[in-house]
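Action item from last meeting closed. Structure (205 res):
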């Protein structure tokens, strides 16, 4: 499988009403987004993303279902010792998809309004679920796949459960377990946020 910075599916065969036209289009590949695209969503990758997408006709003329998966390894900093950790991440999706030739951008994710917004948007969206729309048969799923991958990343990672972290002078204690920081002072237990209030005279006694 070749690596590309696009994840293209050509849906033109789904848009014909010819009898015997296929009811689904599948695609898969390896996706390596451009550096700027990765930076845009805060992702650093250890290698290309594996993706697969299937778009099915649901019987209606312009209505489809898009289903897919993206998986790979993102590189994240251990929250204690700051070393790079390869973190497996996988995301799956299933969206209704609508052909909307008049829209400007090709593939667009339309997020369902939050319940308290529905009133303001009356009539704009009755489905209550996120959906995709596309404007041209040649659809690049790469931006969507990358976005879903980024959302699925954990907020923080540890290089190992018992990571010892860094000493106060920045030495990795996993590699140098016997290291003592020069100032050798014990790290003080975190002060209570109420400490400052202790001597405060509230003037009500
Ligand atoms: Zn660590």
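Sequence:
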């Amino acid at each position: 499988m070749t690596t590309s910075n696009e994840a293209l599916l050509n849906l033109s065969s789904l848009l014909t009403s010819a009898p015997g036209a296929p009811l689904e289009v599948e695609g898969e590949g390896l996706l390596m987004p451009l550096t700027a695209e990765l930076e845009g969503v805060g992702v650093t990758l250890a290698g290309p993303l594996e993706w697969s997408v299937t778009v099915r006709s649901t019987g209606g003329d312009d209505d489809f279902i898009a289903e897919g998966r993206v998986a790979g390894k993102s590189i994240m900093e251990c929250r204690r010792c700051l070393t790079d950790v390869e973190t497996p991440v996988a995301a799956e999706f299933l969206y209704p998809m609508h052909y909307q030739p008049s829209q400007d951008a090709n593939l667009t994710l339309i997020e369902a309004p939050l319940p308290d917004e529905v009133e303001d948007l009356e009539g704009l969206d009755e489905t209550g679920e996120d959906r995709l729309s596309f404007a041209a048969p040649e659809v690049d799923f790469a931006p969507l796949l990358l976005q879903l991958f980024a959302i699925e990343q954990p907020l923080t990672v540890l290089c190992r459960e018992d990571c010892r972290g860094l000493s106060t002078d920045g030495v990795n204690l996993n590699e140098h377990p016997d290291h003592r920081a020069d100032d050798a002072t014990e790290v003080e237990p975190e002060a209570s946020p109420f400490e400052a209030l202790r001597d405060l005279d509230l003037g009500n006694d």
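Note appended to the action item: Residues 78, 80-81, 83, 158-159, 163 surround zinc ion (CB under 6 Å).
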